[in-house]
Amino acid sequence: MTAVTEGQTHPAKEGSAPDQQTVFDAAVAADERIEPRDWMPDAYRASLVRQIAQHAHSEIIGMQPEANWITRAPSLRRKAILMAKVQDEAGHGLYLYSAAETLGTSREELLDKLHAGRQKYSSIFNYPTLTWADVGAIGWLVDGAAITNQVPICRCSYGPYARAMVRICKEESFHQRQGFESLLALSQGTPEQHAMAQDAVNRWWWPSLMMFGPPDDESSHSAQSMQWKIKRHSNDELRQRFVDIAVPQAKALGLTLPDPDLRWNEERGHHDFGAIDWAEFWDVLKGNGPCNDQRITQRRRAHEEGAWVRDAAAAYASKHRKTKGEAA
Ligand code: BYC
């Protein structure tokens, strides 16, 4: 949008004085970006904070299941790749908390809410990583689902969120490829390795489909978020897109997707797939997944143990500011 004066970046046309809501609606309709200092409806702001915070929390909680395998990676190469990937997830969290901060909240406040169970993180990270093949399955399926969901967010109406997603999607794409390559190596390895890869795919497939959120008719936020162009596609549309992408990839991997109802539907031009266990999804959201307690306990512990690092960084920054101030 074209900036005019601070706090009001949409110029009113001469002779007219459109109210702030009209200016906002027109900007969204014209596919312009809403920027932090623009007027926006309170509900738009609150919904963005909700979604971006949940997204950021997912990135940092998502470090845990994969970090579980860093010490046991089968080679130095795999270990280096996994460490880099886990660090990337921390970086994604950082961009996203920064994007949320532009909406007038603070990272501290959001983390407090996560630790108190008042904000969510993705259901997918409440499942355990039982074998090394799970690291490959997460890369292929979980990062694959994440890209499918997140590429459209690069066109989100809120500027800072959209811009954060560009880099995140590039990195997620690399993550997805490394997962695919790692699973391929296992699938083409010994019969035991192939079985381990298949077992991982069997366990991660259905939770990956749940990542896209509830079916459209049970999605409380979708209609409004799509109207505001925070979301560009519905949960079911993106889930279908992901299934259509994953089927040929599974074939290339020599692995089977654990769904007897999965088949190409010529008429629809899409794959039909079996019923998702939504009772399991809602149960995981309520905190009853296999790893909910473990994930949040570990997150709280990491936060407490990292307090001295935050204090030291804040002290250094304040000293640096003072020194710079003196030099000026
Ligand atoms: N898990 O109205 P709906 C990653 C909640 S990170 C938990 O459809 P919306 C990665 C939803 O919040 C992956 N909760 O909501 C990281 C709402 O509850 P509240 C994270 C879920 O927002 C490391 C209620 O259910 N990606 O990929 O319109 C390593 C009703 O849902 C889930 C993002 O966060 C879920 N799966 O749509 C590797 C992407 N689904 O808030 C990979 C950004 C729904 O009213 N987020 N809920 O309490 C989005 O695109 C959207 O927020 C969602 C949900 C599609 C997830």
Concise structural overview:
This protein has 328 residues and is mainly alpha-helical. It is 63% helix and 2% strand. The structure holds benzoyl coenzyme A (BYC).
Word description of this protein:
The chain is mostly helical and 328 residues long. 63% of the residues lie in helices and 2% in strands. The chain is built from 13 helices and 2 strands; from the N terminus they run H-H-H-H-H-H-H-H-H-H-E-E-H-H-H. The protein has a two-stranded antiparallel ribbon. Helix 4 packs antiparallel against helix 7 (159-187) and helix 6 runs antiparallel to helix 7 (159-187). It starts with 19 loop residues before the first helix and ends with a helix. Bound molecules: benzoyl coenzyme A (BYC).
Taking strands numbered 1, 2, ... along the chain, how are they ordered across the largest sheet? 1-2
Query: Could you tell me how far the N terminus lies from the C terminus, measured between alpha carbons in angstroms?
Result: 34 Å
The fraction of residues in strands falls at under 5%
Strand and helix order: HHHHHHHHHHEEHHH
Low-confidence stretches: 1-14
Mean pLDDT: 94
Radius of gyration over alpha carbons?
A: 22 Å
Helical percentage: 55-70%
